[in-house]
Amino acid sequence: MKRSGGGRIFIILGFLLAFISGIGVFYLLATAEPQAVPVQTSKLVVSFQQIPGRSEISPDQIGQVEWPQTVPTPLGAFAEPTEVVGKIARNPIFPGQTINSDMVISKDDAEAQHSNAALIIEKGQVAVAIGVGLDSSVAEALQAGDRVDLIVTYNVELQNPLAGRTNAQYSMSQKTLENVLILQVGPWPREIGEQSSQGGGPVNALTLQMTEQDAVALRHIQNTASDYTFVLRAANDEQIFTTEPVTIEYLNKRFNFQIPGLGQ
């Protein structure tokens, strides 16, 4: 009987020790600080400041950052600042952007092309200028790099006036060219890095990038349209929308003007 009682005591002590050990392990696990898992990185060149388009990149405008190797490296990215300093920015580069080979051009290449405009035009596209005023330039909000749509209005003389009409003139507005890239606002600078001669004066011209066929259409619109205006797209919005031509009949039906003789 004594031996049996002693065995129970050892069993109970064993359970107590195991319980105390479990409490200790749980406490250590709960209070232990998580160890950071090392991440392999590579050095990439990014812009530290805003770099104007068609300007020479200086050492204080760029720097290196550690890029996680778990994230795909941007195509054409540079590893060393010396690979970028002295090159020409094709378009504005914003703070924090990774700089790649498509965003810059060497001075030699720029000089060989003889034009600071030609070096930023995409292959297969052309540049064409169009005059604008305060109302047609979105109150001068437009900047290089923006994308715009062109709305055109025609006032035409009808050869066969509509029934019930005494006025043979007909007006219609419609969106034409869309998602067009603005290369320049105002006159172009003559040299790389030089400021436009537009200065602080009113904007009187835009240079747009488009296909050659669209450039032909734009030229005809300039010569024949009664009026035109640009509308500014939101940043990174390249959707293509189908719009309905707007006439007096359209407005009468949509907004219920109830103009006599037009119907509803």
Describe the structure.
This protein is of the alpha+beta class and 264 residues long. It has 2 domains: 41-119, Antifreeze-like/N-acetylneuraminic acid synthase C-terminal domain (Type Iii Antifreeze Protein Isoform Hplc 12), CATH 3.90.1210.10; 124-255, no CATH class. The chain has 4 helices and 10 strands. The protein has helices at residues 2-31, 107-112, 212-224, 248-255, and strands spanning 41-47, 62-68, 88-89, 104-105, 126-131, 147-157, 169-175, 180-185, 205-210, 227-232. Strands 5, 6, 7, 8, 9 and 10 form a 6-stranded antiparallel beta sheet that branches. The longest helix is centred in the N-terminal third of the chain and has 30 residues, at 2-31. The model has no long low-confidence stretch (mean pLDDT 83).
